[in-house]
Design a protein that fits this description.
Elements (H helix, E strand, L loop, with lengths): L1 E4 L9 H15 L4 E6 L11 H11 L9 E2 L4 H13 L3 E4 L3 H7 L1 E2 L4 E2 L15 E4 L5 E6 L3 E6 H4 L3 E4 L7 H11 L4 E5 L6 H11 L5 E5 L1 E3 L20 H11 L13 H11 L10 E3 L1
Parallel strand pairs: 1-2, 2-3, 11-12, 13-14
Antiparallel strand pairs: 4-7, 5-6, 7-10, 8-9
Helix pairs in contact: 1-8, 1-9, 6-7, 8-9
The structure holds glutamic acid (GLU).
Length: 292
């Protein structure tokens, strides 16, 4: 069994990302599996200089140990291109030169932004630069999330043909994550529920590529009082190593793992050991977000 943590180095590790690291780590280590690390640094314009190194250092200070080398998405474009070519060979990809405005003028709102209306699907000539989209179908995609329960989505209705490679040449998260998860042998994905709505897109790609489907568990995200996910943009407090034990205990409370009072005085490593031994995914609140 293999789990993973896949932070985007857009800023230092914050409480929200600590939750995903902790939950995926405990879930995998409690079952004797491997826990891998992947830097999702595809979107260079959004990256913060030094953040990747800072995240790794923070994880280490918090007592996490990962298996194998850290992989960096920025070094894996050839793999993503190969996979895009495989989908092209199945006639599932087309070029799209629609501008944001053109899409906004004709599209309906879906589950995650606008539903692309398929304008370029049958266009003979497309201007450069252009994006690559995958053709979706009008079938329900259903899966059972170990925390959130039964989830169902119809991609044609809720999302539309989605982008695999952007007009600026960057590969989209949805494609990269599917390629990397299979390539790293990931069997169990534990991450924030902000990605729950992306999962059917990823399952669709896995199905089309003939990849095995991983198990999914989406933990509630920490949000602020306005309901916004804690992130660098919403000014989530950076977590610092000097109070690592206290942050870990808070994260265990957030995930309803019921750490005993005396654990507070322990080192991060001891806390992680306790958390792994006592991990119970059934205790994690079945909510998409919780105010922190
Ligand atoms: N890189 C994504 C993030 O930091 C997580 C992707 C994933 O776990 O699939 O939100």
């Amino acid at each position: 069994m293999i789990g993973r943590f896949a932070p985007s180095p857009t800023g230092p590790l914050h409480f929200g990302s600590l939750l995903a690291a902790l939950a995926s780590y405990c879930d995998m280590k409690s079952q004797g599996g491997l826990w891998r690390l992947r830097m999702e640094d595809l979107d260079k314009p959004r990256e913060m200089a030094g953040a990747a190194q800072h995240i790794l250092q923070t994880l280490e200070d918090f007592g996490f140990e990962w298996d194998g080398e850290v992989i960096y998405q920025s070094q894996r474009s050839d793999l993503y291109q190969d996979t895009l070519n495989q989908l092209k060979a199945k006639s599932l990809v087309y070029d799209c030169d629609c501008s944001r405005k053109e899409i906004a003028d004709s599209a309906q709102h879906g589950i995650d932004g606008l539903v692309y209306p398929g304008t370029c699907r049958h266009k003979a000539v497309v201007k450069a630069p252009h994006a690559r989209r995958v053709i979706v179908d009008d079938q329900p995609i259903a899966f059972t999330d170990a925390i959130q329960g039964n989830i169902q989505q119809n991609l044609a209705h809720d999302v539309g043909d989605f982008v695999l490679k952007r007009a600026d040449g960057l590969f989209a998260y949805q494609l990269a994550v599917v390629v990397d998860d299979v390539e790293q042998g990931v069997t169990d994905i534990v991450r924030g529920a902000d990605l729950l709505d992306s999962t059917p897109r990823q399952i669709y790609l896995q199905q089309r590529l003939g990849y095995p489907l991983p198990q999914y568990a989406h933990i509630p995200v920490a949000s602020n009082a306005a309901g916004e996910k804690l992130s660098k943009q919403t000014l989530a407090p950076a977590i610092n190593a000097t109070r690592a034990s206290a942050w870990l205990i808070q994260a265990l409370h957030f995930l309803d793992q019921q750490p005993p009072q005396e654990l507070t005085a322990q080192s991060p490593r001891e806390i992680l050991k306790w958390a792994t031994q006592h991990w119970d995914i059934n205790l994690v609140p079945q909510q998409r977000s919780i105010v922190f």
